[in-house]
């Protein structure tokens, strides 16, 4: 079930990527 898990991870990635890291 590595494929389904990867897809789910990708779906959870967008929201996380939306928030840029505080690199000052």
From TrEMBL:
Bias (Low complexity) ranges: 12-24
Region span, Disordered: 1-24
Protein name: Pre-rRNA-processing PNO1
